[in-house]
Design brief:
60s Ribosomal Protein L30, Chain: A, 28% strand, alpha+beta, globular, six-stranded mixed beta sheet
């Protein structure tokens, strides 16, 4: 197994950003946090940034949004589902939609409101 430690926002954390085992990438939850630590207010911008961060975690392992096998999305409020889903569908336009689970969670730190983790295949080269 290979572990990848660089997190997209450059922060040091006590866990790997992803692990690769037998051609499968297991990415930790990605937040809508920019490199400067800021978090956008708008849900569409939050979704876009969280998916950008996920892409940055998957690429070094040979994957990307195109190679997702499964996503789990955590929302602070399911009343925001439509805004999240609209941004999600826009981002995945032209790509295969992976299986996805979306759940509401009781609490996030700060203004996060969304976290996305994923399992992806290492892309054929």
């Amino acid at each position: 197994m290979t572990t990848l430690h660089p997190h997209p926002d450059g922060a040091e954390r006590p866990y790997a950003a992803a692990a690769v085992h037998q051609g499968v990438i297991y990415a930790c939850g990605q937040l809508p946090r920019a490199e400067d630590g800021s978090t956008p207010e708008d849900m569409a911008d939050k979704v876009e940034l969280a998916l950008d961060n996920l892409q940055r975690v998957l690429e070094p392992a040979g994957g990307g949004l195109h190679s997702l096998l499964k996503m789990t999305v955590f929302l602070a409020d399911l009343d925001e589902f439509d805004a999240y889903n609209d941004a999600y569908l826009k981002r995945f336009a032209g790509l295969r939609l992976p299986p996805r689970t979306t759940v509401e969670v009781a609490r996030f730190r700060g203004r996060t409101r969304i976290e996305i983790d994923a399992i992806a295949a290492v892309a054929d080269r």
